Amino acid sequence: MTPLPPQAQIREVGLRDGLQSIPTVLPTARKCEWIAAAHAAGQREIEVGSFVPARLLPQLADTAEVLAYAKTLPGLVSSVLVPNLKGAERALECDADLMLLPLSASHAHSLANLRKTPDEVVAEMGRMRAARDASGKKTLIEGGVGTAFGCTLQGEVKVAEVLRLMMALLDAGADRVSLADTVGYAHPRAVAELFEQAMKLAGDRFCCGHFHDTRGLALANVYAALQVGVTRFDASLAGIGGCPHAPGASGNAATEDLAFMLAACGVNTGIDLTALLALRANVAAWLQGEPTHGALWRAGLPSTFQRTPA
Amino acid sequence: MTPLPPQAQIREVGLRDGLQSIPTVLPTARKCEWIAAAHAAGQREIEVGSFVPARLLPQLADTAEVLAYAKTLPGLVSSVLVPNLKGAERALECDADLMLLPLSASHAHSLANLRKTPDEVVAEMGRMRAARDASGKKTLIEGGVGTAFGCTLQGEVKVAEVLRLMMALLDAGADRVSLADTVGYAHPRAVAELFEQAMKLAGDRFCCGHFHDTRGLALANVYAALQVGVTRFDASLAGIGGCPHAPGASGNAATEDLAFMLAACGVNTGIDLTALLALRANVAAWLQGEPTHGALWRAGLPSTFQRTPA
């Protein structure tokens, strides 16, 4: 059997990808409580919000405050999503550890959602890099290529185009790149094939896989990615988020289920699962009425599970 | 990446493992409708019920009638679960294509559920084989080793004991053997390790993996098993079944999600997913009020999915 990497990192994206997709606006204090508890449970990377206009995403209007709090926690990598140069300037002002610029490899999706072609987003990456370099800040820049496995609007998205755009983001100044299955079209074989190529091209600048669980395959996809050496994954506590095209469907891989799978397979994430499940219960209570997902919270950890991280 | 087998078989166990776990008693005519539609959708192996006393499982009291109907469908392998020689005699009378004797590798679970030690179940297998041979029937005998990845009662179940019991079943007369994660303790690494050993020992007499989705890992586990060459899996339409120890938890892998993953990965199952999803909607309606599971039914097939089986 293919050996698995000894450790992997989960980036919590529930506070961004999760909260932006649901109507409930979580108060700033609750977000900070979430981040503190996630940090206490061993999570070391959290996407705390997004610098988009508050009128578009009122759920994330407090991103600057949340980020300021997150930056007080030792050893935590606090990242934000930025849709453009303007957002990047705010991320730089706020000293985010990392800012992620999403690009949609589907032209149709890119035009519909960002009103830009993918190559115009690449150009924006160049401007972001110039702004970062001019600012003297240490904020890392990640380019995230979405709809990497297909798109509900456009249908097929060619592998060659995904890889071209990924490399174009690096050439334009991204420090690292990631690939996202935005709409839950990925399957393990496609993941193994695409991620193997992505890692060959980008080397250790290829940093992360982002899988939505829309069709139930997120964890199988992570396992396939692990086998080709990917060691960082986005996930959302309680699987919050969902997909606007599939009412009731899951969002990202549920952090707690992913952390369980990794730990059970002997891949160390540094996460204390008992603490994470306690946080999951709190977050689900704060979001009462919103659909949550995942399986581990109902069943609990196996009695044979080693509770302390290796 | 590890090449996947070109084809795999899904055995539908919703009518047995699913229905036995829920209070609703599905009328015989509905069960036959289910089987006919599953057959029309391309399913070729169905566990139609269980020959246990009707007072224990009234949901499956009509197994003989359902089996008689299933046997009229061309090319369908109709199997039944039998807990002991008495059940096996009924399966032989009814000309089942296959009868499955479950054995629990956990001594604690075996005593609690079957009131027999695992080795007493092995002895029963010997009597079943003698009865089959004496009957002149062609009914195949499968020995299914459950709690193969651990047990809620006993905790750890040793790999050596699982493999010893699997081989003992073959030695006692089983034609084939399978392994089951009865309580959702398996994870992909454990599956790859155990199934690889099982296939080395039993060769092509090792026939099937049975994964409960209690902790969300059923599909990842199937993917791991596929990679070591396993090509037959149990699954339950709409994931019905559940686990008595985890209220609300999923049952088996959902047939439709599993069939989707396999087809998407290029592993042919012969199943028409559009027809299967239509059947899933009917079964969910027949079982109104019972929890159903799975993800594909909400999201639908990707627009890029090839609908006709290869």
In short:
The structure is a homodimer of 310-residue chains. Chain A has twelve helices and eight strands.
Secondary-structure map:
The structure is a homodimer of 310-residue chains.
Chain A: E1 9-12, H1 14-18, H2 28-40, E2 45-50, H3 63-70, E3 77-81, H4 85-93, E4 98-104, H5 107-114, H6 118-135, E5 140-146, H7 159-171, E6 176-181, H8 188-202, E7 206-211, H9 218-227, E8 232-235, H10 255-264, H11 273-286, H12 296-299
Parallel strand pairs in A: 1-2, 1-8, 2-3, 3-4, 4-5, 5-6, 6-7, 7-8
Helix pairs in contact in A: 2-3, 2-11, 4-6, 6-7, 7-8, 8-9
Could you please describe the fold and organization of this structure?
Chain A is of the alpha/beta class and 310 residues long. Chain A has one domain: Aldolase class I (TIM Barrel). Helix content of chain A is 41%, strand content 15%. Chain A has twelve helices and eight strands. In chain A, α9 links the parallel β7 and β8. The longest helix of chain A is centred in the middle third of the chain and has 18 residues. The model of chain A has no long low-confidence stretch (mean pLDDT 95). At the A-B interface, α8, α9, α10 and α12 of A face α8, α9, α10 and α12 of B.
Key traits:
TIM Barrel; homodimer; 310 residues; alpha/beta
Tell me the domain tally of chain A: 1
What is the helix tally of chain A? 12
Regarding quaternary structure, what we see is: homodimer
Radius of gyration of chain A: 18 Å
Shape of chain A: globular
Strand content of chain A: 5-15%
Report on the biggest sheet of chain A: 8 strands, parallel, barrel
* SSE series of chain A: EHHEHEHEHHEHEHEHEHHH
CATH superfamily of chain A: Aldolase class I
Poorly predicted ranges of chain A: none
CATH topology of chain A: the name is: TIM Barrel
- Side by side, the strands of the main sheet of chain A go 1-2-3-4-5-6-7-8
